Amino acid sequence: AESESALARARIAAREAEAEARLAVSALELARRDFEGAAAAKELRARASERARDLRGRGVATEAQEETAALALSQAERELIARERAVDAAENRAAVAEIALERARLAVRDAERALADTEMRAPFAGIVAEARAVEGRRVARGETLGALLDPLSWEARVEAPPRDAPPARRE
Whole-model pTM? Predict the structure, then answer.
């Protein structure tokens, strides 16, 4: 019973680890998309800043317009760095989730092996004469858990008056 419940707990933990791994992979995909969006926004801000600088050089734009475009570019660059860090963090979470999933799968295999090792076998089919095993208690390999009687090897000695005894046979 203990081995069966240990296996059930290991399987539940493995399912939880699988769910965590899926969430981590999903978060990583979202982080990568956010990064791509931030990279595209930075490129747009870089072009706008370059355009503002060019227009100011031609006397069409003001210094304030050029500074506003440069500030927007600077903010886009900071946002891109933040998104890059978010991708790194998501990659690390996904890697940790994969490791946890592998550990959970190993725990399931160990629990399955432990359950398989709990099988009790007798060397012959017989009648249980004594049972010392207690459900849920750990036992050592080779420990005596009870006694079996082999009904095919029974012998009986009976005393009876000669008149009631069957005729003797020699074997």
Answer: 0.65
